[in-house]
Specification:
globular; oxidoreductase; binds NADP nicotinamide-adenine-dinucleotide phosphate; NADPH binding; alpha/beta; 11 helices; NADP; 7-stranded mixed sheet; Rossmann fold; 2 domains; Quinone Oxidoreductase, Chain A, domain 1; 6-stranded parallel sheet; NAD(P)-bd_dom_sf
Length: about 375
């Protein structure tokens, strides 16, 4: 399959939006026929068929945070979301992706004014478009990942510019499980440090949401992939996802093992999302002129890094955020297009390993934080 062509075609199909001015669209699809099929361990299928049309419901159910803290601060409430304004769409969410960044906001590691509705990833059906917007219509199935925050809701208002069409071949639950994580992997492997055949890469938390995608993609690019995980079950998953070597870093010293695997040469790049517990060891695993890509801190913020720590091996150190890699519409379509193309062609298998009702987001957060999850974690609105 010509990956570049498929990606370009998907990008063209996703970019159907243009703006002109006119009257607001006042109809809304509120009832959705959904066929649930628990097909395999790796995905769940949701079929969407527009059924009835009725006026806006003014209130919807959502998870809201009024004070920072543990999972218990995630409250299930009624909220008013209003109607889409110019350039906006209203979307009835079918599946909502959970990401570790939602935990950071809930705890206050990253800040947002209170109260807020968490969540930065969802797939849903457009139920209304704001005044003058063309190129988007009621009934479109769209995905978004990133800004704005607020996807833990039955419905939400989005700028139309952040939404991309979901290719019909991709199940909405799969799309909601990979949009943010897949685009993150895209930015890390294809732009931040370009992984090529012959490279050796280290991926921490290799069985996690982003980790699973990173390992599969790095393997497909021809790299030797080393993954770290906390237990045997996650090790088995990481091996299935293309890790040539899996290290259970809760049982053995990953630095020593990587030294053996690479015969002392070190790895070309470390993708480190664990932070505090792994950061120093990751630096030790790198070859001279290697890339330390610190993109998360699930175990806590790493200690400050003196320049001398990277000078000894002339290392490159970067702290990338997906949001800076998808700032323009073109960048967004490029990244989403490549991710969806890789899903469609089977290069990336999406593991939807955990699904919770939206009202039980607190349980989902507790499981994610306690390292009980692997692959992607989804919330599904209770009424679906
Ligand atoms: N920079 C960006 O743009 C960007 C975008 C997306 C995600 N991220 C980062 O990528 C990371 C992965 O996100 P994700 O949503 O896919 O989560 P995830 O990897 O599914 O879950 C986090 C994993 O981190 C590992 N971990 C190690 N020490 C931990 C600790 N003390 N507490 C909790 N987990 C610990 C666990 O795997 P083991 O049990 O195998 O150790 C856990 O399953 C996060 O750090 C997130 O912030 C960054």
């Amino acid at each position: 399959m010509d990956m570049k062509r498929t990606s370009r075609e998907l990008k063209r199909k996703m970019d159907t939006m243009s703006v002109s001015f006119g009257r607001p669209t006042r109809t809304v699809i509120t009832k959705i026929n959904r066929t649930k099929t628990t097909t395999s361990s790796s995905s769940r299928s949701i079929r969407i068929t527009p059924k009835t049309i009725r006026p806006f419901a003014s209130m919807v159910k959502a998870i809201r945070v009024h004070e920072l803290g543990g999972p218990e601060v995630l409250k299930w409430e009624e909220v008013e979301i209003g109607e889409p304004k110019e350039g906006e769409i209203r979307v009835k969410n079918k599946a909502i992706g959970i990401n570790f960044i939602d935990v950071y906001y809930r705890k206050g590691v990253y800040q947002s004014p209170l109260p807020f509705i968490p969540g930065r990833e969802a797939v849903g059906v457009v139920t209304a478009v704001g005044p003058g917007l063309t190129g988007r219509k009621v009934g479109d199935v769209v995905a978004y990942a990133g800004n704005p925050m607020g996807s833990y809701a039955e419905e939400q208002i989005l700028p139309a510019s952040v939404a991309v069409s979901v290719p019909p071949s991709i199940d909405p639950s799969v799309a909601a499980s990979i949009m943010l994580k897949g685009m993150t992997a895209h930015s890390l492997l294809r732009r931040c440090f370009k992984v090529e055949r012959g490279h050796t890469v280290l991926v921490h938390a290799a069985a996690g949401g982003v980790g699973s995608i990173l390992c599969q993609w790095a393997n497909a690019l021809g790299a030797t992939v080393i993954g770290t995980v906390s237990n045997e079950a996650k090790a088995a998953q990481a091996a299935e996802d293309g890790c040539h070597h899996v290290i259970i870093y809760t049982q053995e010293d990953f630095v020593t093992r990587i030294d053996k695997i690479t015969s002392g040469k070190g790895v070309n790049v470390v993708y480190d999302s664990v932070g505090k517990d792994t950061f120093q060891g990751s630096l030790l695993c790198l070859s001279p002129r290697g890339y330390m890509v610190s993109f998360g801190q699930s175990s806590g913020l790493p200690d400050p890094v003196p320049l001398s720590a990277i000078a000894a091996k002339s290392l490159f150190l970067t702290r990338p955020s997906l949001f800076q890699y998808t700032t323009t519409r073109d960048e967004l379509l490029e990244a989403a297009g490549e991710v969806f193309a890789n899903v469609a062609s089977g290069i990336l298998r999406v593991r939807v390993n955990h699904t919770y009702p939206l009202s039980e987001a607190a349980q989902a957060h507790a499981d994610l934080e306690n390292r009980k999850t692997s692959g992607s974690v989804l919330l599904v609105p209770d009424a679906n």
